[in-house]
Specification:
There is one protein chain. By secondary structure, this protein is α+β, with helices and mostly antiparallel strands. 34% of the residues lie in helices and 27% in strands. The strands form five sheets. It has a nine-stranded antiparallel beta sheet. Strands 1, 10, 11 and 12 form a four-stranded antiparallel beta sheet that branches. The chain binds adenosine monophosphate and magnesium ion.
């Protein structure tokens, strides 16, 4: 059903997360501030084609900068292994060898493949890192303002299936059992990289930090004198606006998936860049899913998976799954609806907490 102009506006309230800290940066560039004897150090770089801001509290500016450098170095190392954009990565080698012999790969790729398959199993295939051929097919068709034919969908489907990912952790090898199949980590890789960067910060002795990779973030500890990191919820249609409801988080990851980032409208219907591998169809009616979990890999993967599962199934799923909470905004013919898992509210900041 076509959305009315008003409901379309409301639908655009689909939320994305943006740290208030990141907002403040614009007004307070490069600030290093004494707080509880700690210095705040912050840096934004652009690895993986996306902005990543690392904020740390450290005993000295030098120590903070060293930790940040270590975090970005780790990001680069991991990206060199898991990026399918880079021809020389282990992930690309694995893809090229699809249908052939097992390939020896970096342990981090093994870990990421295992996590990906685990999420696929737990979501009944709603999440699947072999979905690339379908995503590409839609992209090609959308450019021509058309939908794929059944034959095209069947051909893409034949190249997919997480069940055909074989991982032998002991041997340190992986194999894609179907010829022409490909993995890509668009829905989980950013979270994985954030977790790796957090590990690098911890190794450097940092206990208070915020890593924000545009839609995927991890809040480590809480800033001096605070109960957590205050996270603003922004209106993607008007990026300068922050909605009243904020999150107060510590030692958790927050990830948001949404069709406000990438979508196409054909004949009045709105289609998302997230597809349902079980049906071969793009997700409809979803505004955004915000997932909170103990680590960013999980939050990233479940934010995408819950977009596929749909509001009811996703909230029920989160309720059953200890440690994952979701906030879902979905489009309805009248405007938009909200579904929250039972435990989500404990992350909503009290009104009296100020930035
Ligand atoms: P995210 O922004 O984390 O939700 O990831 C979205 C990206 O993941 C898309 O651009 C696709 O490349 C890929 N993707 C789309 N649908 C799925 C799915 N059902 N499972 C896994 N990856 C997907
Ligand atoms: Mg994701």
């Amino acid at each position: 059903m076509e959305l009315s102009r008003r409901s379309a506006c409301l639908a655009l309230l689909a939320l994305a997360l943006m740290s208030l800290v990141a907002c403040r940066r614009a007004r307070d560039p490069g600030a290093a501030r004494q707080a509880g004897g700690l210095v705040r150090v912050r840096e934004t770089r652009m690895p993986m084609g996306t902005y990543m801001t690392v904020t740390v509290y450290a005993p000295s500016e030098e120590a903070g900068q060293k930790a940040i450098d270590a975090a970005f170095a780790r990001v680069e190392q991991v990206e060199a292994v898991i990026s399918t954009w880079r021809k020389d990565s282990d992930a690309s080698t694995l893809n090229r060898q699809a249908g052939g012999e097992p390939v020896r790969v970096d342990p981090r790729l093994i870990a990421l493949l295992q996590r990906s398959v685990e999420v696929s199993r737990k979501t009944g295939g709603a999440f699947d890192i072999t979905v690339g051929p379908l995503v590409k097919l839609y992209r090609r068709c959308f450019r021509r303002r058309r939908l794929p034919t059944d034959d095209e969908l069947a051909a893409a489907g034949a190249r997919m299936g997480y069940q055909a990912i074989e991982v032998d952790a002991q041997a340190g090898t992986a194999r894609l059992a179907k010829e022409d199949m490909r993995v890509d980590f668009g829905a989980i890789g950013k979270g994985f990289v954030v977790d790796q960067a957090v590990a690098a910060l911890r190794k450097a002795g940092i206990t208070t930090a915020l890593l924000d990779a545009g839609g995927d973030l991890f809040a480590l500890g809480s800033p001096p004198g605070r109960d957590g990191w205050l996270i603003g919820v922004r209106n993607p249609a008007r990026p300068d606006e922050i909605l009243e409801q904020r999150l107060l988080v510590r030692d958790v990851a927050v990830a948001t998936s949404g069709d406000y980032e990438q979508f196409v409208v054909i004949d009045g219907r709105r289609y998302s860049h997230i597809v349902d591998p079980r049906t071969g169809r793009p997700v409809k009616h979803m505004g955004s899913v915000t997932a909170i979990a103990g680590d960013a890999t999980t939050a990233d993967a479940y934010a995408t998976a819950c977009s596929v599962l749909g509001p009811k199934a996703a909230a029920a799923f989160a309720n059953e799954r200890l440690g994952v909470e979701t906030l879902i905004l979905y489009r309805t013919p009248e405007g938009h609806g909200t579904a929250r898992s039972e435990g989500f509210d404990r992350f909503i900041a009290p009104d009296d907490v100020t930035p």
